[in-house]
Structures are given as structure tokens and as C-alpha cells.
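Lecture 7 notes: from sequence to structure.
We start with the chain below.
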Amino acid sequence: MRGARQKVKNKDCYYHCYSRIAGPKDLYLFTDVDKEKGMSIVVDLCKLFLIEPISMTWMDNHWHIIVFAPSKVPSIEEAAERYNLYYKKKNKQVICPIDNPKRCKDIAERMIDISCFMQQIHQKFTFHINRTHNRRGTLWAERFKSTILQKENALWNCVKYVELNPVRAGIIDDPMDYRFSTWGNYNGIGKHLFGDNFSRHMRRCFGLKAANWSDEDIFAKFRSQLARIIADESGALMNEIKEAGELARKKESIPIRFLRRTRHWTDGAIIGSKAFVQSVACRFDDSKKVMKKQLSCGTDLSDNIIYCYKRLQRNLN
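Predicted C-alpha cells for the same chain:
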């Protein structure tokens, strides 16, 4: 009989949560589309929950996420407002704190509960997988696992562990090249899915000495340490490890990296000028969605700007 989940009550807490699918260990079910969908589900649910994701990686048969769970329960008025805003487009009935105080209180408590947060992600993702893979039944091997993290070294090192998963699995050589993670996504488009969360919480790992660090200082330090770990695990000498870290701090610009990365040419749905990309994309997608979408871009040797519309859909043809 499984025991109750260990959750810290009445105090802010960091958690590393992990889930693996049911079936043989060599069953790699998730496609690139599925992993992209998983990431979008998490981003969407952040509009409802007050749980703050910091780092996330989706692999072929499991996924990791590190989150901050606040201890402060929102007021029933705040909870109702957030709930109604989220479900406004889903045609759900609006709730009123005066008429439904008990329900609003329950919703407020759920908004800071990692179990409720993970349950929603699993349900939505299972629905997606069963529908797109023509399957039914349970997807996950067991309930998700969670580890409580101290905000200092434990948090900082666990984020590095999560982002290095695809490297240690032999999928890529550098975590910035794995687009189904927060770090890879950030290095691909220049915008971290949870940038504010990442900077704020990772800064806390270093206490007062990081009080004046900019967001870029945080990203540079993290990038440098990832490079040092990769060099160390590949058998590099101490001076080579140090050099790798210093080089990584400088960060190669996204425009330069864009044209060198083959994935834009194979996984990009549309590539060309911004006007061309948007006009063609509007033929397949909602025009409002297309115009709001942030495009990856790069420059060639003649300083011409090239844009890429990354849309991992099976039916784009």
C-alpha cells in the first residue's frame, strides 16, 4: 500500500517531479509532436495554477519538471478571478465567491497543490496520447514521483540534472540543442518558457552575493556550469574543463547559431522572410495565432534576416 505523498505544508517549497509511462523499458512512445504538446500543456496550466515551473525536459518515455509551490493560498476572490479568466474561452460556468465560497476555497487550495497540478498535466497529456496514437487506458506506470529540494545547492544542481538528461541519454551533445526542454527551447528562440521563474529562483540559490546579478548573469553562470559538467564527463583535463566553462559564458548569438543548426532546415515548417513565413502560415493556422507567434530568426553573411516557423504538426503539407 502506497503512503501519503510528502508535501510541505504552510511553507514555500521546491519539488522535482518525474513520471514514466507504463510498459517495457524500451518503449519510446512520445514523438516530437507529443513532447511539444506536453510542454504546451504545462505552459497553459500555469495560467490557472500558481505553481511556478523552473525547468522541464520531455524525453521519449518520461519527463521531468522542477517547480516552486507557494505556501500562500489565494483569497477566494483571487481564485475565482483566475479560474474564470482561464475557463472563459472553454465555456465553463463562471463562479462567484459570494454564491460559491466553499467551491472557491477548494479551487484556491488546489491552485498551489503540486498533486493537483501534476494530475491535470497527466490527464490532458493522456487524452492527447490516446487520441493521436489510437490507444486507450492508463498511460503512466505509476503516480508521479516527487523529491523535495533545498533552495540552495539542491535546486541549482537538480536543474542541471534535468537539463542534462538528453545529453546523458546520448541524444545530443549539448543541452541547448534539445528543443523539448526549457533550456533547449530558450537557446533555440531566445525566450525561456519560464524565464522570470528561472532567474528569480536560481538567483536565490546564491543568496546575497547574487542580489545584483542580471538575468543574463544567471543564464551565463548556468550555461558555463553545464559546459563544465559536459567536459568533465567526457574525460577532459582540468584546464580544458575551465576553458569550456569560460567559453560557454560568452554565449554564441542566436542569429549565428540559427543557420548552423540543421534542425531549422528539417523541422522548420516554413523558412523565409517574415512576411513570407506569416503569409504562408496563415494558410494552415489561425491568422491571429500566427501573427502572435514568436519566430526563430538568423542572419546570413550578407546580413539578410531569415525567419523560421517551427510548427510540429503532422498534417502540414
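Points to note: Residues 76-110 form one domain. Residues 114-132 form the longest helix (19 residues).
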